Structure formats: C-alpha cells, structure tokens
Request: fold
Amino acid sequence: MADAEDTMMVRFAPLTHVLLGPPGPQRVRVSQSLLVLALYLGFALVLQVEVHLGLTSERLSLPLTLFGLMGCIGFYSTIRSGLNLRLSEPSLTRPQMFYSMVAVAWAFAVSGPPRGATVVLMQVILMFGLFGLPPREGRRMAGMGFLMLAAVIAWRSWTLADPAETRLDLVYLMYAGIVFTGVAIISVRLGQIRERLRHQAAELKLALARNQELATRDVLTGLTNRRAMLEQMAIAAREIERHGQPLALVLFDLDHFKQINDSRGHAAGDRVLQRFGEVALAEIRAGDVLARWGGEEFLLMLPRTGLEEAWRCAERIRARLAALKLEGGQAGMPLTFSAGVSSCRRMDQLDAAIEAADRAMYLAKATGRNRTELVAGPGLTEVGQGAAA
Ligand SMILES: Nc1nc2c(ncn2[C@@H]2O[C@H](COP(=O)(O)OP(=O)(O)OP(=O)(O)O)[C@@H](O)[C@H]2O)c(=O)[nH]1
Reply:
C-alpha cells in the first residue's frame, strides 16, 4: 500500500512541482491559493445550478463568475511567480480575503432566494483569516464583512420595491451578526492559544540552548568539556585527513596544583583553573579548541598545525602565564604547567595521538616540570625532542 502511494507520488512529482513550486513557505502559500481556487469553482458551480433552476439570471451571475475566476487566477499567478515576495505581506491573506468578501457580498445581491446561504461562505473566508491574521485583524475583517452585507442589503431595499424581501434580508443580516460575533470570539481564543504556543516555543528554545551548553561546556572554566572535545576532535581529524594536513594536540597539566589547593584553599584552586583557561584562550587561533580534559589537565587541539608550531603555541601560553600577576587568594603563587605535544594525520590515529601527548606530558613532569615535551604522533617518526622552558 505504502509502495503504491510512493509510486503515485513519484509519478505526479513533476506536475506537483510545476503547480506548487519548490518546497518551502512559498509552496504553502501557493497551495493555499489553489485551495481557494478549488472552493471558488464549487461556488461557481452552485451559481450555475441557481441559473439552471431559474433562481437567478445568467446576465447577473456571469460577471460575478468571471470576477471570482479572475481574482483566483490572479492571486495564484502572483504567488506562483514570486511577485508576492516583493510585498510587505507575501501571504496576500488580507487582499485575498477582501476580494472574496466582495465576491460573496455580490453573490448575496444577485442570488435570489438562496442568498441567505452566502453568509456561510463569508464565515469560511473569515476562518481562513483566523489562522493567517493577528486576532485584531481577524475581528476587523469580520466587521468589514458584516458592513459589506449591510451595504448590499441597504442597496437592495433602496432598489427593490418588495418590503418582504428587505425584511428577509434583515433576518439574514441578524444571522450574519451572530456568525461574525462567534468568529470574533474564536479569534480572541485562538490569539491566546497562539501567544501561549509562542511563549512555550521560546522557553523550549532557551532550555534547549541551556542543555546544549551544559552538555558541551565545563561548568567551572566555561571551556569545552571532555565529551564535546572528543566529538570535535573526531570532526577535525576527518577534515585534516581529507586535506592531508596534520592535527596537533597539546596536553597541559598544572604543576603542583595540589599544593595550591592545600595552601590557599579549593576556591583559590578553582580560580587558578579559570585563569589558566582565560590565558590559554587568548593565545590560540579561532579554529583551535581548548578543553578541560580532567581535574587540572587541559587539552588543546590545533587543526592544520605541525608539532613545532604547536610547541611554540604552548610556550607562548607559558610565557603569558609567567607574566600573570595573580591577585587575592592566589597572589604570589607560581603558576606553571608541564605539557606534552603530539600530532597525527589520520582519524584512526587520534586515540594514539592523545596517548602520545599524555606520555610526552609525563616526560615533562619527570624531567623537571615547567616544560613542554614533543613526541611525534602515530604514523610519524618519533622526534623525542625535549624543550626546556
Ligand atoms: N580546586 C580544584 N581542584 C581540583 C579540581 N579538580 C581536581 N583538583 C585537584 O587537583 C589536584 C591534582 O593533584 P595531583 O594529581 O597530585 O597533581 P599536582 O599536585 O598538580 O602534581 P603534579 O601534577 O605532579 O605537578 C588534586 O588535589 C585535586 O583534588 C577542581 O575542579 N578544582
């Protein structure tokens, strides 16, 4: 069954494309105008039935039929050609409603005994407006429709000799008044529902952004967290593999951080971690990513960067950190780190490159701290070059 539906859709796809245009908001507007055209054809058919039954004359109904047809085709062509996009209201809801109301008021004038039923058509037009217009505009349209009917009835009582017809028209007008008041009340309700939905959507968007932030950021430093870093490294590694470029990693571990915590307190330790993040961020390029990797460990990823360049970046951060004057509870504390640099050129070498950076960092710790060690990543020749600060 589903297969048959799919085959039908594929078969009619070119026709749908020609009639409705490419998918998007414009297609919704085109479909709407085609729907109006379809409804109008029903209306024209009923007019013909009225002529056939002798309830109205061909002379009176033909201009109305042509007026409606021209309007529907005109609105469809304007929207399908994209001319509507140059207007302040591309949906053309107001002009379409106004045009249709004129047609219905005209139908009331020429329809003979069944004219009371045209009030129902007016209601259908107003229903379209409920979804496309702000509530106040919807109510204004309802008022306008009522006035149009009232004007037609006034004109009829002026031109027709039979007072019984006018009495009947006034009854129709009263019914129209009830219908339009109902529409106005619904428009208020709908406006409240729309407002609540808008509010909920804004709140959801905010909550989603907050969740995204929580899921990808380290709470203390505001840096990328370990999980998000792993994802970003995978993306970057795929990218550099395609372009045959290296990706460098620098793993930083603050020296004797436990002592800072022990001597100045945990809050001072926290502040040091934050300051390190700020200093390091100021030294890296836009495409580089710095993450809090663990307690006092930070991992820097430098796409399209070789070992030497990454090493120089780490040393720039070291120099900045040395020049930093810590204040408050952290005043006078020496702030240094040991770092390990490695690199890779392929996605499947990423884990090994992280391990290599870790080994290099431990080498820096073992050989005196406050220094950066280089280790060629997997697939590259081991450089084994030490770099004292
Ligand atoms: N203030 C603070 N301390 C943390 C945080 N995460 C981890 N730590 C502390 O960081 C310290 C790390 O200590 P160690 O692993 O012994 O390392 P270290 O003292 O820096 O010594 P080396 O790395 O050998 O130079 C521990 O005392 C942890 O409690 C944090 O978020 N805030």
In short: The chain is about 65% helix and 10% strand. Residues 163-216 form the longest helix (54 residues).
